[in-house]
Amino acid sequence: MDILRNKKIIRLILVSVFAVLFLILAGYFTNKYFGVFKQNVNVGNPLAPKAQSAGGSLSIPSQIITSPATRFTIDIGPKQIESVTARLKFKPGPTEIKLGIRGDTKEPYLYEPLYHQFLQDVSWNSTEQFGETLYQKTKTYDSISALIKDPPNYQNIASYYVNTSVFMQKLLSGGFVQTNLKSINQKTGLRGTHTFFVRVDKAPFTFKLTKQDLNTVAGEDTYVVSIYQGIKLLEEKTIQDDGFAGTEKLKQEPQSVEFKLDSVKPGTYKIVATNKASDSLITALETNQSKLVIENYVYAFSTSPITLFTTYSPVTLTAVNKDFTQTVKLNDNISLDLKTAGQKYVFDLDKLNPGKKLLDLNALEIPKTNVTLKIVGYIGLSKDQYFDPNIINTTDLAKISSLDEVNYLLTPVKKAKVEGSWLVSEITIDASSIKRDDTNKLYVSLEIPKPATGSAKLEIESFNLSINIPGILTGKPGKDDTEKLSLILKISAIPKKIGSFFTTIYQSIFHKKTPTPTPSPTPPAKTNTPKPTVKASPSPTAKSNKSVKIKVLNGGAPTGYAQKYADLIKNAGYLNVEIGNAPGSSISGALIVYPSKSGQDAIIIENVLKPEYKTIYKVVDDKKTDITVTIGTK
User: Fold this and answer.
1) At 195, which helix (H) or strand (E)?
2) To which H or E segment does residue 446 belong?
């Protein structure tokens, strides 16, 4: 009896051990594939065809990249990306190295710099404040605050990747430049599309735009008003047509749209008011903030004179038609004549007013309106409302050939670390605001801008990416909250089911009962079910080139795999497929190298590989005319 009981105890212990192991594995894979907790996906070096697997990570030998842009994609599933961290170990040589990411091929890359030779070589006096570093050839300023209050000429100071929105947020959070905090209720006469910047000093942020349709052009006149923080769209609303879609010039009552953003941080916010037909007027702007400017372009169309303010120069003025040729006054004493309708007149305001200080506003008095004004900078509708979203006017570091041309350099970018003959740079890109398409991929571009002479060349020792993904329990609420909560409930039910399962086992061990026999069900009648047709590979859904030359190379896969996948690719309709062995050491996963014109073919080949290969790297190389597929270990 004791022997039997001991056997039962041993069986119970074994079952308990397996239960614990099962829970650990279930928790791991649930988090891995469903993202309950925050995750880091380490990609290793996605650029290397000679990647080696060691202890679950990827490492490669030194290699040289000569392409100005090396692009690849990473399949990360539908999860939201929080940030991307990149680490590059490389030899000095390139003037600049930068990394770009995007989640949608229709969107531009979001760039962060990994290295700039000028920044690495600068040995001037340095001062840090607000997360920025100011380098000075001869020390003039004790702080960046002092620089902002009394800046040098923009031609004498270079800047490199200064994010003005983030910079402004840091300034305002520290109580900097918060003066004349008077809310805005501005009557305007702005025709068509305009872009505004508002300095938000406090929450909430309210904004109201009022429009009036002119009804001089056939078609509906809508205004789409969008509010952005950086590149992130916060909210968008549409003011519909007033009901007159013809050319009758009839006018209804003005229409408005209002926003209230409760949880905003201090900083600069962009508002784009889009009117495609340019047949409507923005007649009023209201906000509880105190600073508002227009970016680059103003179409003044009003029954009364208007005065615009700016610190930027030059300015291009154009009278729209012959009834509005006129003389614009600069600072009440300098005449700017618009003699011919439709002609662009360019005025250098700094030369016309040589005694002007850098921060002094130029006033442009436009008597008849119906005038367009273009400038690379910002325009204010009143003196009190004016501010510079750039904070300080500088020269882009990319536009100078040597640091000898300037006396100051402002940047948040840190120098690369020196490790022997190598340099090491590590950056983190905030990816929370990037748009994602339905391919579930992250598009990455490692770029070496081509120098004025010679060719781009980058020797790397290693390149690693870490994609940071917030989990269900750690991420911010979003559109998929219902699905996430449903998943959490399903996951939370697992322990209960497991407990019930092992309770049944326990009872069967210690309280064994003779089970009641259950009658067998009557088997259903057989029916002839047609078998589905299995296709060897997907058919192309867009334009592809079935005559492109494709090389399938064995880079560590079992013998015969190159021939196997060559046959599958042929079954997809490709006529020119060869096999061979990859040079060098084996790789982990599969690698597709192709010219950009063969993008659709690369997608078809990727789909052929997917049933067996979870890790597939795609690298664009426009120096190639054919496609190379390297098959490695799974």
Assistant:
1) strand 194-200
2) strand 441-447
